[in-house]
Specification:
Blueprint (H helix, E strand, L loop, with lengths): L2 H14 L7 H8 L1 H27 L7 H9 L1 H34 L7 H18 L5 H22 L19 H9 L5 H7 L3 H4 L2 H27 L8 H8 L1 H33 L4 H17 L5 H30 L12 H21 L2
Helix pairs in contact: 1-9, 1-11, 2-3, 2-8, 2-11, 3-8, 3-11, 3-15, 4-5, 4-15, 5-6, 5-13, 5-14, 5-15, 6-13, 6-14, 7-11, 7-13, 8-15, 12-13, 13-14, 15-16
């Protein structure tokens, strides 16, 4: 196992694990661990296959593309347009989720000195970060690396502090009225296929690229196991007191001072993520939709704020909706692209999956039925 294998594995794991992890304990506590872990098993398997499909599609294609480009190449303009809609919905929803989390985390940090509401803290966060998006300022790569390390330290510290206080009696086994609740949040927390093209570009030689399949499988397995351990530990400490953002619900059990430093590291990583996605959405409007720069910036930053101000302030509801919409649209698009690339690809891939056609349609039905369950009773 060489260093490039480990770097590529880190790229994929780092892309998958993000803000969505803070919503997992809440939805699984509300549904019970049996349906929650069932979703991890089923969706983990489905998402694993979709990542593998996308990896093979990239390896079957000579030209360098991202998902919109592959959609246009194999499915035509309508496929690209559908992906663009998914990108706008997904990134806007993610930015809204960051705004919601930031208000709560800043209140934990600053409420002893500033008597402001979560909404006011959210507005402060938005003003500061939108200024940087407007100026086109992005953290340099070393700073991004530091924020990623901070994020994982936050999660590991929470895990380490929760384990000694674990009480199995806090674990809820099954709560039938909420069995559909975890679908969208878990799907959101497992999506990382945007990293696959970057990973393929990073692994230059044919020998290294033969490891892509193993890297994808390893990453998904590691992430799912890590999520299960994290969720079980948090629920085992907080029980029914688990909050939507995880941190505020742990204050009575871990103490204000400890949560303060965790929230500080978390807000730094949220700020970095907001900058990255805010600039990505702005540039999408500029380069793909041909909007003027000022209109693109106002739309990219203003749309999530507008949604927040008109009342979309549920972190779980936002992440669940985004995970469902993006997971279903992009998941089905990738499956269809994979099917076409098998027929029309213009290079020999370093790995090739033999997938029965019934499994491809079964995966699409799983995503559709999951989405229906969310709109029926999951949000």
């Amino acid at each position: 196992m060489n260093k490039n294998f480990l770097f590529a594995l880190a790229i994929l794991i780092g892309t998958i694990i993000g803000a969505g992890i803070f919503g997992l304990p809440y939805v699984i506590e509300r549904s019970g661990v049996i349906p929650g872990f069932f979703y991890f098993l089923v969706l983990g398997g489905a998402v694993l296959l979709i990542h593998l499909f996308f990896g093979e599609t990239i390896l079957r294609t000579k030209e360098k593309c991202r998902l919109p480009g592959f959609s246009q190449k194999y499915l035509g303009k309508s496929g690209k347009n559908l992906v663009m809609i998914s990108v706008v919905i997904g990134v806007t929803g993610a930015l809204l989720a960051y705004l919601i989390l930031a208000g709560g985390f800043l209140k934990i940090l600053l409420s002893p000195t500033l008597n402001l509401s979560e909404i006011q803290f959210t507005l402060i966060f938005w003003v500061v970060l939108s200024f940087f998006v407007f100026r086109g300022i992005k953290l340099i790569a070393p700073a991004e690396f530091v924020t990623n390390v901070l994020f994982f330290l936050v999660i590991i510290i929470i895990l380490g502090l929760c384990l000694p206080k674990f009480d199995i009696s806090n674990i809820s086994i099954l709560n039938p009225p909420n069995v559909f609740l975890p679908f969208g949040v878990i799907l959101f927390s497992l999506i990382g296929w945007s990293a696959i093209p970057e990973m393929v570009d990073f692994l230059k030689s044919p020998i290294e690229r033969k490891n892509i399949k193993k890297i994808i499988v390893s990453a998904i397995v590691i992430v799912v196991l890590f999520y299960v351990l994290f969720v079980t530990s948090v629920i085992g400490v907080a029980g029914e007191n688990v909050s939507q953002d995880t941190l505020s619900g742990l204050i009575p059990f871990l103490g204000q001072k400890i949560i303060f430093f965790i929230a500080l590291a978390a807000i730094i990583t949220l700020a970095d993520s907001f900058l990255v996605l805010g600039l990505y959405l702005r540039n999408t409007f500029i380069y793909d939709l041909k909007f003027p720069k000022i209109i693109s910036t106002i739309t990219a930053c203003g749309l999530p704020l507008l949604l927040f101000l008109i009342g979309f302030r549920s972190f779980i509801g936002t992440v669940s909706f985004v995970g469902t919409i993006v997971g279903v649209i992009e998941g089905i698009i990738i499956i269809l692209i994979f099917k076409k690339a098998k027929e029309l690809g213009d290079r020999e891939p370093e790995y090739s999956l033999k997938i029965p056609i019934v499994l491809l349609y079964g995966l699409m039905l799983l995503l559709v039925f999951g989405a229906i369950s969310q709109f029926w009773g999951g949000f």
